[in-house]
Every structure is written in structure tokens, then in C-alpha cells.
Specification:
homodimer, 179 residues, mainly alpha, 7 helices, 64% helix, 8% strand, elongated, DNA-binding
Amino acid sequence: MALRYALLGLLSREELSGYDLAQRFSQQVSHFWEAHHTQIYRELQKLEEEGLVNFHRVEQQDRPDKKMYELTDRGMEQLLGWLAETPKPPKKMKHEVLLRVSMFHLIPPERAIAFLQESKAYHLRVLEGMEMWGQAYFAEHKDEDTIGETLTLDFGMRFMKTWVEWCDFAIGMFESRKK
Amino acid sequence: MALRYALLGLLSREELSGYDLAQRFSQQVSHFWEAHHTQIYRELQKLEEEGLVNFHRVEQQDRPDKKMYELTDRGMEQLLGWLAETPKPPKKMKHEVLLRVSMFHLIPPERAIAFLQESKAYHLRVLEGMEMWGQAYFAEHKDEDTIGETLTLDFGMRFMKTWVEWCDFAIGMFESRKK
DNA sequence: TCGGTCATGTAATGGGTTACATGATTGA
DNA sequence: TCAATCATGTAACCCATTACATGACCGA
């Protein structure tokens, strides 16, 4: 059910095509949600059937035509209704890296260390990407209310830093074991 | 595919029933994975059909009978094979609280602050629960290799602390806006 | 000519949740 | 008497991923 509200939320700011929405999901929304384009197109169809969004076809030359979606009054109502609900306790994480870590007693420490170093490097790269995205985004949206983006990006960056610190801690534990 | 390896991993230490496995998922495994009992029972059936686990029925008085599952050699092989694979980049988070935060421009700041305070309190309670679980668990498993549990619990606790700190930061931002 | 961007989708499969079902024992 | 613990499962549904499909333009 959450994907539909993510879509309605993005549409509450501006008209967007399915393609645009998919772009958003691979950029600012990516810090806390993800969705494939296939899922987005299907959900948009449902939202349209339920009267929560409308679309109009825009013809373009040199490019495929597109469908621009906009929120209806009923869509806005539903979105605000959802926002007013008391949320259920958050889902537990499903983190495959941690799942592997939980089985580190089965592999030699050198392999565990190599694995953790790779994971650390990966998360550092993601952190860097977030910083760059943030600089570009906030420069471009200087005059708008970007509190949501500020806060979610900030959390994403804190998460990455926490991960990197934890990797160092874990590597340290395995290093001291090797001796 | 990951659930099956979580099950094989737990069975690599000891024989367990489906019920036992479900218990594990609501305790130590819960910091990084979750699974309903319905899913566990179904997956165990599949694993048995594929010859990765065996079970034998244990009759009990005063309690329902149970099926104890143990890893086969092929099961261990598959588990080690999976551990040796290079993992794909981790999935993005899906965090409903952050999804709501991303739409905070649609609600009044007082509501946002109340929401964040509740979330903070919730995560503090979870953190406390983790600390207590850790103390009990490590006291009980003093003589075993608990590096996996140590590291995954440590990450879980770091995550909770990061969340709490971020809540304070976010509340601060809204407080300064109210003026 | 190859990969990337723009733009839309269907179909099959896989994974996860919820509802339903049973039934004995134990402690509040 | 009511809820919790122990113990197992089926069925329906919902949500998400992967594979497949099309097709034009643009820059390296």
C-alpha cells in the first residue's frame, strides 16, 4: 500500500509522467524507497481507475508521446488521510550483508575481512554520491520548501556513515582474532 | 532466495523445529531479517524436498509433537557456496517513516514534531530491548563463538542510536521553523 | 555500431502477508 | 475464563522482480 502514497506524494508537487516518477525513485526517493518502472506503470493504472489521478497525453516530436499524471481532489484527500493515520511500527530490515555476517563463524577471518572492506568501500561510494546529489539538488531548488529532502537525505547519509564506522569496528574484531 | 540461507545458517549450529526457527527470527535474527512462521514452514518443506535438510518427528507428552530439522551435507555445501558468492549491491531500504517525512511539507510543524517524538521514543524502546537481549544472550553463550551475534547486534544498536540522533536533528529543524 | 536516454507496457514468477484452522496446557 | 505458549500447517491474496517487447534519437 505504501507505493501508491509515494506516488501520490510526488504528484502532490507537480505533474509527472510514469517515466519521470521512475527517475525520482532512482534519485531522491532512493534513500528510503525503491520501485521498478513496471510496478509504477501498473500502480498508476490502478490509481487512475480509482479516480485518484488523471492523465492527459502529451504528443512530442522526436520522442515517444507521454502521459502526464496529476493528482485529483480525491487523491489529495486520500494522501492526507494516510498521513494522518498513526503508522504501524516500522518493518524490520532485511539486510543480506548482515545475514552473511551472522554466518561468519563458517568462513576464515581473512575472507570476512575482505568482505567487510568491500562493503565499506561500497557504502563510502554511495555516501559520496549522496553528497553530490544533495549539492546539485539544493542548488537547483533554492527557493522551494525542501525540508523533506533535507531530512531524508540527512538520514541516508547518517546511515551510510554508521555503516562505515561499523565496518571498521567489525574489521578490527577480526584483525584481533587473527593473532 | 535469502530466507532459505538464513534457515540453513541457523540449522548449521543445531537441530531446530520450525517453531524454534520462528522464535529465532523474532529474537536474534530480527535485527536484520524477519519471517513469518507460515513462510518458514513452507520453505522447510521445499528444503526437505531438495534434500538440503532432513527431519525426524519427536513425540512429546503434554505438548504437540514436533519435527526436528537438521542440515544435510548437501545443505552445508549449498550454504558455503552461497557464502562464497560475491553479493549483489544491497537492496535499498523501504522505510515508511521516511516516506512520511518526505511529505512533511503537507502537514503543520506541530504534527511533524509529535510524529518524530513518537518515532524517537519507539526506537529508544527497541534499543533498550536490544541491550537487554544482548546481556542475556551473551551470558548464556559465554563459551561459544558468538561473533556473528555480536556484530549484527552491534549494528542494530548503532542503527537505533543513529535514528534517535536524527530524530533530534529533525525535531530541531521544525522547532526553529515554528518561530 | 553500440550503448544510453526517452517512453510505455505485458506476463510469468517469486516472495511475503493475512486469514483461517486445530488443540492441549498453564498461569493470571 | 481469557490469553499465552507450544506446535503445525493450508489457501488466498498482494506485492515485487525479472524477462520480454517495442522503437526512435543521439553521441562516442
